[in-house]
Predict the structure.
Amino acid sequence: MSYLDMFSLEGKNAVVIGGTGVLAGEMAIGFAKAGASVAILSGNQQNVDARAAEIEALGCKAIGVKADCTSKADLESALERINSELGHIDILMNAAGVNSATPFFDISEEEWQRIIDINLKGVFLACQVFGKGMVESGRGGSVINISSASSGPPLSRVFTYGVTKGGVNQITQFLAREWAPFKVRVNAILPGFFPATQNRKILTEERVASIFGHTPMKRFGEPSELVGAAIYLASEQASSFVTGSILRVDGGFLSMTI
Ligand SMILES: NC(=O)c1ccc[n+]([C@@H]2O[C@H](COP(=O)([O-])OP(=O)(O)OC[C@H]3O[C@@H](n4cnc5c(N)ncnc54)[C@H](O)[C@@H]3O)[C@@H](O)[C@H]2O)c1
């Protein structure tokens, strides 16, 4: 096998939750171009169908499945459809996410719960629903969660979001430990700052200046710059001894102090 072949996802099936979004959409296309068949999941039928059609237009296999990641019943019916249309699951990416800049004392219980449900409970449920088959099949697999720079030392203005992403790191490391005997690797990608739908409102001029001032590369990331990390972690060969890792793709953001 050539070193390049190590990154092939030929014959693999990937589920990308939040695959209609800016970052996971690009990574889903990356999985498909690397040879995988892809199931795109999110809460909007039109959007999942559009992303699946975009992938099929590249000559790859894709299906759009409407599923709210906060609903176990939705995820279970998605699993049934994926099993019947694609077969077993090799790769699970948990990338659904929402954000809010509400100041701490103004965060309502409803807002707190909504962000916790989508960003954290959604990962928990998807790992239960899709991870079970991966663990029990003996075939192994790769789970890739999407963390954030807010998961570590606190980032201003994203309180609930940061709490959920700290939790995503914990889920990643806990399941990496639990599922290693079953050859299911569990890792996270930690993107720095990438303009997308969920964070557009938060990226004010002042905040952008502060982000660039704290990013050695002095720019935002491009969604395509996450694809290499995603394919690497998805590949059984390229990252065979990698589990529990939180791979930063952040232009150096978390390496910097004053
Ligand atoms: N953009 C960034 O700078 C950045 C940085 C770090 C981490 N992230 C994370 O990357 C992931 C992708 O976000 P993005 O920036 O591309 O934003 P985005 O808004 O473009 O995508 C978010 C996706 O989540 C989906 N989603 C929301 N609620 C859902 C639900 N209940 N059920 C199923 N799907 C749901 C949306 O449909 C959309 O596809 C998120 O987890 C986000 O927290 C983004």
